[in-house]
Design a protein that fits this description.
Length: 548
């Protein structure tokens, strides 16, 4: 026994990770408030006052306004976020700065509950690295001033995980949660429900919970929690059906699109099993082999180069770590299940060419912390003599992450300065400026009852000052009669045809031609139905047509 204690003491003296753990031990609150301060300061320095050209962030605002102003239920994407920011809009109006600052508060909430969740399961040094990376990642901080629902989802997700751990994992064997407090089961069911109506992908949390309880054989808790989730969901759908007369399930609005081979060409039909398998493979290479490492400053932002090798390493670490640790810790079993199922469902569901960083950002902190824990376990148990590699690795990542963020500050502060001086278009490329100017012209010059179709209705809504536009997202058929009737039945009186590029940073990037193909089909079949009303000149001209 004496010899064993001496060996442990000697190992602790020699292991550099142990020394850093000792240094950060007892400094939990310092780590928390440092990460809070970094997130808040960088959140202000990198604050993005304008909406993105992606369009989804402005669509959330559009739906939120219509929910409050017209009583229209927000469809297609999860309704909770538009409903929440709709309340803010009812108080402040469409104020981008206020809405974006709400996202920063959500990001800070995520930081708080993430710290509270993992401080009991990570070593002090690992906890420091986790919070440092999360609070200095410009990619994550971006969502603290965006009106996408990522920051909102991150906050709810972290609250759920913290509550679930506190109620059903910690000391679960000594004090079964269902005997102790039924409120915890109901609250967990409610939080699962909130996740599911914020993002459709939130439903994977329910799957993770079910599988976790199957592993731990807590049938009674599982049954009660899922029953609570179902009751909340049915009640919500009943209210939705009664008040808004919406019968279909939320996921059906977006789920049918995800099944398609090409969401912009429904005529191509649905994907088959092989197609979904290839989505998993290709998305793994893109999101793990590029986006994940890029989020933490370890890839060239302007040079998209996915790495199958990096994706393989991440899979190898995650899977080997899961099978090594799941019997040792119920907590890491649950986090592993939650993270793995979330990524697998995301990779299978996503169309490969969407390829957007934000589609995995909600689960990125969980993958980071799981890999961090697995590597810590390896370097402090299996390969102790290489412990310094662990430290060097994460020091390099931390420095690269911080450097990437700091280098973004000068350019973004200029954007903020221009915006505060009244130049709301600064930072947009010329093709998008023309498009937004046309949206404003429509609001200023067309009759109030005019209903205008366009490719980016959310952005047009924001920069026109709050006028509703009709979204032309795809060309559902080649039948001109159907296309024409679809617009007329919707009440569309005009259509904006803009020359906006898929990649504004590339002057040779192709033009988004959805509206052009739509109108070309109508014009070919019905000459004279489209009358040019107004045109904005320039390298990327924009045309406004009246539909007769």
């Amino acid at each position: 026994m004496t010899s064993k204690i001496s060996d442990n003491e000697l190992a602790q003296k020699l292991n550099s990770i142990n020394k850093l753990d000792n240094f950060f031990s007892g400094r939990d609150q310092l780590i928390l408030w440092l990460s809070f301060a970094l997130t808040f300061v960088f959140g202000l320095l990198l604050f993005e006052p304008k909406v993105s050209i992606g369009g989804d962030d402005s669509i959330y605002i559009n739906r939120a306004f219509n929910f409050i102003d017209k009583g229209s239920f927000p469809l297609f994407q999860g309704p909770l976020y538009p409903m929440v920011i709709g309340v803010i809009i009812s108080i402040t109006g469409i104020n981008l700065i206020v809405l974006k600052f709400f996202s920063l508060l959500c990001l800070l909430g995520h930081q708080w509950f993430t710290f509270r969740l993992f401080k009991n399961y990570l070593s002090p040094f690992s906890l420091f690295i986790l919070m440092l990376l999360l609070s200095t990642s410009s990619a994550i901080i971006y969502y603290g001033s965006a009106t996408y629902n990522e920051a909102f989802y991150l906050a709810i997700q972290s609250i759920f995980l913290y509550h679930f751990d506190k109620s059903f994992i910690r000391n679960s064997e000594e004090s079964p949660a269902f005997k102790k407090d039924l409120k915890n089961i109901l609250l967990s069911g409610f939080l699962l429900f909130l996740l599911s109506i914020t993002k459709n992908i939130g439903l994977v949390a329910v799957i993770a919970v079910i599988i976790y309880f199957l592993f731990t054989k807590n049938w009674k808790i599982a049954t009660l929690m899922i029953a609570a989730f179902v009751v909340f969901t049915i009640s919500f759908n009943f209210v939705k059906s009664s008040v808004w007369e919406i019968k279909e399930a939320q996921i059906s609005n977006q789920g049918s699109t995800l099944l398609l081979k090409n969401p912009y060409k429904p005529s191509d039909g649905n994907d088959d099993a092989y197609g979904f398998l290839m989505r998993l493979v290709d998305n793994s290479k893109s999101y793990l082999g590029y986006h994940f490492v890029n989020i933490f400053g370890m890839a060239k932002k302007d040079d998209f180069s996915e790495s199958p090798f990096v994706a393989f390493i991440i899979y190898a670490l995650f899977i080997s770590g899961f099978f090594t640790l799941f019997k040792k810790s119920r907590f890491w079993l649950f986090i592993g299940l939650f993270t793995g199922i979330s990524f697998m469902a995301t990779f299978i569901a996503l169309q490969v060419y969407w390829n957007q960083e934000r589609l995995i950002v909600a689960f990125t902190p969980l993958l980071l912390v799981y890999l961090l824990y697995v590597l810590y376990y390896l370097f402090t148990n299996k390969i102790r003599k290489y412990a310094s590699v662990f430290i060097i690795l994460f020091m390099i990542v931390s420095v690269a992450n911080l450097y990437r963020t700091i280098t973004k500050i000068p350019g973004q502060t200029k954007v903020i300065s221009k915006y505060m001086k009244g130049d709301k278009y600064y930072g947009f490329p010329e093709d998008w400026v023309n498009y937004l100017n046309m949206a404003k012209w429509v609001n200023d010059n067309l009759p109030e009852e005019a209903y205008v179709g366009c490719r980016k209705p959310g952005m047009a809504f924001i920069y026109s000052g709050g006028k509703d536009f009709y979204g032309i997202w795809k060309v559902p058929t080649n039948d001109a009669e159907v296309l024409y009737s679809k617009l007329k039945d919707a009440g569309v009186t005009h259509v904006i045809l803009a020359n906006i590029r898929t990649n504004p940073d590339d002057p040779n990037s192709r033009i988004i031609n959805t509206v052009r193909r739509y109108l070309s089909a109508i014009n070919k079949a019905y000459p004279g139905k489209l009358i040019l009303v107004h045109q904005l000149e320039g390298k990327w001209p924009v045309y406004l047509y009246e539909l007769h």
